[in-house]
Amino acid sequence: MDAMQWLYSDIVLDHFKNPRNVFDPDEQFAYDAEGTVGNVKCGDQMMFMLRIGDDDVIRDVRWRTYGCASAIASTSMLSEVTKGLHIREAYNLKPEDIATRLGGLPDNKIHCSVLGDKALRAAIDAWLEKTGRAGLYRNEGATVICTCLNITDRDIETAVREGARNWEQLQERTKIGTVCGGCKVKGEALLHEYVHIFGEE
Amino acid sequence: MERRIVYMDYNATTPLHPLVRDAMAADLGVFANASSMHEAGRAAKARVDAARAEVAKLAGVPNPDELVFTSGGSESNNTVFATMFHLGRKGGRRKIVTTAIEHPCVINAASWLRDEGFPVVFLPVDASGRVDMEAAEREIDGDTLLVSVMSANNEIGTVEDIPALCRMAKAKGALFHTDATQSAGKVPVEAAAWGVDYLTLSAHKIYGPKGVGALYVRKGAPIEPLIRGGHQEHGHRAGTYNNIGILGFGLAARLALEDLEGRAARIRVMRNRLRDGIVERVPDVRVNGHATEVLPNTLNVSFPGAEGEAILLYLDLEGVQVSTGSACASGSLEPSHVLLATGVGPELAHGSIRFSLGSLTTNEDIDYVLEVLPPIIKRLRRMSTVSVA
Ligand SMILES: Cc1ncc(COP(=O)(O)O)c(C=O)c1O
Ligand code: FES
After folding, report:
1. Contact yes or no for B385 and A45 at CB 8 A
2. Greater pLDDT, A144 or B291
3. Is pLDDT above 50 for A155?
4. Using CB atoms within 10 A as the burial measure, which of B177, B330, B348, B351 is most buried?
5. Which domains does chain B have, with CATH numbers?
6. What domains can you pick out in chain A, each with its CATH number?
């Protein structure tokens, strides 16, 4: 089909038509760590399975998703990029890198593509925990959101993963926005995004 | 090889009927302003009024003068709600009773009135999408200014009991509006027999042109213009007549009534075959909407474990054109408000697909969809995080 007629780039189309490294229920893929994020209620959920060597290099990857075309395509692309990477590099992959490799995504679809790298990070975190190094990379590549208290996007993500669901609960856990309050708009936007990604319950 | 295209999105819009296209094309050179007094103007006006008579028949009203031409269903619906705004501001009745499954143009117009301080109630529906009659009985009261209920739903096709709801409104002295945009040309529309005060129609859902519609306003029912200006349409709707669009609408309305029953029956047989075929070939599906009180052309199915936008786009790659209630397709985070109102739950709403059939649908089209759909669902379910029994 002519790419111009399609909603997405032809790279997206290719990955949508032929997703790489997608989990096959018949294959019995043995993996060392797994991470799942998202919520079917919100229309997207993602799972990453990693086979990792003793040298922390990702040897093989499988993923599954309940998600739209751009979730499928971006996770397929991410899985290609991830193979052969050290877990630290994989942990710091940015959703924008994936979107760029895909030839861009429509604005309202960027959200769908961030689930893949969140699931990948959750799987790497699970691996780190399993190997006694819990939280090792948590603050790498993080962006400071609350300058008064040096609270990063990763801190907000962690708080949501541990149960914070609204601004008050986020403040209880992180103290964000309790000095000048200037970070509230940005903080709330991130909170909203993470609550969507990490589920209602 | 010619790529096969199967259009099954007739509730979104329809192609022009070939006779409508020919008639409009033949009139492209007719440019006179239908409000002009000279001969050419009078001729143009006569054609507008001939079209009005056809549209009146489609609406089921004896008097064509009760029809106002608009730019479409959205404008007709908004005109009714704008009229309520003017009436309600003068004091007296203010309550608006509508339903949770209306088209966004009604939901958003009603929400606007709520923001302006009007009491607004969105009636719940049952699992099949029919309005909860007990709730209607309870909510329609002596303060109710307007009751607005669509005659058939665009997403799931459920047909509402308009005569009964209209009687309820009349018993309490309220005005009654129905959005018949999806009913027209598919099932009989009887504005006069039903006793409604206002009824909405749109040309592009009945093989007519886009950007033309009509509002039936019962003689004596209040009406305020949404668009102010010249004296067109008795001052109810200003703007130079869209002659060619109106001409196309008139002809489409006439054709829509020709053998309505026969065409509906033919389409119903194909819709049922598609429905039964999907249920037979795809495990664990849910057919949404009412089993019998439903538009003959509409089939809405949820596929648990598969996401709607992905289904839609895999179908699109096979040339099958449908729509979905998934949030991802609409760009919002909320899936279809209609399906949520029927209580299906977000998981099922995200995985819903609407097949809407029409005049060009063939039995081969049904066979083709039944061939390409099951592997798509199977494939998506195999890659899904949600396991389906
Ligand atoms: C039930 C219903 N009402 C109103 C409309 C809006 O009609 P139009 O596109 O002519 O503005 C539609 C079509 O999208 C519809 O399905
Ligand atoms: S920036 Fe967060 S409290 Fe000041």
Report:
1. yes
2. B291
3. yes
4. B351
5. 6-15+259-383 (3.90.1150.10), 18-257 (3.40.640.10)
6. 3-130 (3.90.1010.10), 144-198 (1.10.10.1100)
